[in-house]
Amino acid sequence: MRCCDVERLWDEMREGVEPRREHVLAHLRACPECQEIYRENEGIAYCLTCLPPVDPPQSLVPGILDHIKTAVKTMTPDSIAKVDSPIGGLYVAFRHTGITAVALDRGEGEEAVFGKLQRRLGRGLIPSQAPQWVSDTVAAFFRTHRPDLEKVDISDLTPFEQSALRAAATIPPGEVRSYGWIAESIGQPAASRAVGRAMARNPVPFLYPCHRVVDSSGALHQYAYGVELKARILAMEGYKSVGPVRIAVKVPRG
Question: So which residues are the catalytic ones?
Answer without folding.
Answer: 210
